[in-house]
Amino acid sequence: MDRNRTTRRNEFLPLAKFKTYKLKNYNFRLILLMLVICGLGIAIIGSANDGSDNRAVFKQAIGMVIGFSGMIVISLIDYGWILKFYWLIYVFNVGLLSAVLLIGSSHHGAKRWIDITDGLTIQPSEFAKIFMILFLAKFLTVNKERISKWWFLIVTAGLAGITLLLIEKEPDLSTTILVTGLTIIMVFAAGISYKKIGIILAVFIPVAAAAIIYIQQPEQKLLDDYQMKRINAFLYPDEYDDARYQQDNSVLAIGSGKLYGKGLYNDSTESLKNANYLSREMVNDFIFAIIGEEMGFVGSCIVLGVLFLIIAECFLAAIFAPDASGRMLCTGMAALLTLQVFINVGVATELLPNTGIPLPFISTGLSSLISLFGGMGFVLNVSLQRVRQ
Fold it and tell me: What order of strands is seen across the sheet that includes strand 105-107?
């Protein structure tokens, strides 16, 4: 009788979800890696601003402190309890993205931000990445038996499509593509049958090819002019030299760094950064150009190595996760980080068309930084509850 009364009373204490964990199970390796990448990020951004704009460094440092603190707090909250509210997370995400279109502020022709106070804005599309991971981690797990049914795949595509449409309307094509890739990876990771994968690819490949042909037509309506110009600059570099200016200088900067780079905070007259040949987006979309020029091949490998170790920790947390939803959550975070690193470095090295995806934990942008730290907090909690195998 007393046990039943206690159980019933605990059901009405939903906020009491800070479990008692064993300190030895805490993933201090991941914490150390996060501290290292934070230190590297501050140093690189400081050097990118040439020490002349301490506000950017201070803002990034504040963001890292807030993000890191939030990560620790989230790591102590049972992720399983959070995922119980997956539909609420989805609705909140859609509502936040809708608010951008209604009351958002515009910068450089895009409405992607919501003003909080004077000088402080949030970019909901960055948080949408984490919200989608949380939603899909639970939604796909709850419906695991239906994952290979066509009607369920259509429903999943529709739910994801609402989010993608809202992001694209800002417009933010790069984040739309990123979240699309993230959704596809999580659906595949959920256990969709190989037969279904084959059929999907058989349909997707010709449709994608037709879309690529269509968007190159003068009368196409899918992409804005600036987006089309970037794609054409990638496909026909000789005809669009002006549109490749940023990427061309980025490649020159990376190559000029050679093996060991020119050094952080250098005053070299041969530096493309010091000569202002790198754009104002260098601390965000083209931060890897700064890394390559000032830290060289060795420094670039160190930065990428730390990022890939963080990704590896996400995969390890997935392997030893106590349940399927935890495994999906960590897989989603690993996929998100991998995609962002690949796209950011690919753009900086001209392997991909110019698009605005930040390098995780290093590029400026408080929304991106804080949202990623929040996602890593969930990974830490999954790791904290890991099952030995």
Answer: 105-107, 110-117, 120-122
Q: Diameter of the chain by CA atoms? A: 80
Tokens of residue 294, six digits: 């000032």
Residue 244's pLDDT band, with cuts at 50, 70 and 90, is: confident
For the chain, the domain total comes to: 1
Measured in whole angstroms, the distance separating CA 9 from the mean position of its chain's CA atoms is 39
Q: What is the pLDDT of residues 189-219, one digit of tens each?
A: 999 988 888 998 898 889 888 888 887 787 7
Return phi, psi of residue 296, to 5°.
Answer: 70, -170
The rounded mean pLDDT for the chain is 87
Beta bridge pairs of residue 113: 105
- Name the CA dihedral angle for 39, 259, 287, 64, rounded to a multiple of 10 degrees: -10
Asked whether residue 9 is assigned to any structural domain, the reply reads no
Cα–Cα distance measured from residue 203 to residue 7, given in angstroms and rounded to the nearest whole number: 51
State residue 324 phi and psi, 5-degree precision.
-65, -35
Two structure tokens written together for 303: 């930065």
**Would you say residue 62 lies in a domain?**
yes
3-state SS of the chain: helix, strand, coil percent to 5?
70, 5, 25
DSSP string, 193-217: -HHHHHHHHHHHHHHHHHHHHHHTS
**Structural domain for 136, as ranges:** 22-384
Contact between residue 71 and residue 33 where contact means Cβ atoms under 8 Å apart: no
On whether residue 1 sits in a domain, the answer given is: no
In a domain? residue 45 = yes
